Amino acid sequence: MNTSVTIQAVLLCGGRGTRLSALYPDRPKALAPVAGRPFLDWQLDWLARAGITLVHLAAGHMAAQLESWTASAGRAGLTVSIEPQPLGTGGGLKFVEAYLRSDPFLVLNGDSIMPELDFAALLAAHRDTRASVTLAIAPIEDAGRYGTVEADPDGVITAFREKAPRSEGWINGGVYVVNRAVLDLIPASQALSLETDIFPGFVAERRMRAFRSRSPMLDMGTPEGLAAMTKFLTA
Predict the structure, then answer these.
(1) C-alpha distances in angstroms, 70 versus 87, 123, 171?
(2) What is the pTM of this model?
(3) SS (HEC) of 156-208
(4) Omega of the bond prior to 104 within 30 degrees of 0, cis?
């Protein structure tokens, strides 16, 4: 069972959610319903169960709806910012630098959860290394839809592999522990991707580690993923 952790989480909610927009064109992906509740509500409850209630939403597409939802949610510690133009995951993270209140901090993709992830163990693993970023990874039997993560026996990430036919592997769980100093390396006001513009340099310098979790990774970024997530969470 997770123990309470004092750390801030940043949820990356700026994307357009193009693969899901046919189902819910009138709302941001984070507010798409999962079993009758906005996905964001599920995500915040998941964090709260680990004692993480200091949460910042990095909003972009249809951000006014997220701002309105945040104002009415009644959750202490929940804040939101709106990026002035699409900045990607890297640029969007740099934009919220002024809102950060912990070092390190968590970064989470706004369309996925790892329901059985032990946050306390993840943070302990990060503290025990000199990594700049620690990434939670999840096992998957059919890895073809996802890129995979490769790490050495010590957990140092050695490569991110593109999507390809693979029977099994470890995939990015969408949960990162990030040292605040990482933001010094990201230029302001530029559209950048963490995955393609920032992380490869950290991998080359052996400054990025993997935390292997046996939790499934539930991704609601596609209609099929949304259906699978709903089935898991309501079982």
Answers:
(1) 21, 27, 30
(2) 0.92
(3) EEEEEECCCCCCCEEEEEEEEEECHHHHHHCCCCCCCCHHHHHHHHHHHCCCE
(4) yes
Alpha-carbon span 214 to 235, nearest angstrom? 18
Please give the helix or strand (H or E) that residue 125 lies within, else none: helix 119-127
- Catalytic residue, candidates 29, 94, 163, 231: 163
User: Per this entry, what is the length of the chain?
Assistant: 235
pLDDT tens for 117-154 read: 999 999 999 999 989 999 999 998 876 677 889 999 99
Distance separating alpha carbons of residues 82 and 67, to the nearest angstrom = 8
Rounded-to-integer distance, Cα 202 and Cα 134, Å: 11
**Could you report the per-residue pLDDT of 74-95, keeping only the tens digit for each?**
899 999 999 999 999 999 999 9
- Is residue 163 part of the annotated active site? The answer reads yes
- DSSP at 103: S
Half-sphere exposure of 136 (CA within 13 A, CB side): 27
DSSP state of 2: P
Going from N- to C-terminal start, the domains of the chain cover 8-233
Instruction: Tell whether domain 8-233 is in CATH 3.90.550.10.
Output: yes
Q: Report how far residue 164's alpha carbon sits from residue 190's, in angstroms, rounded to the nearest whole number.
A: 30
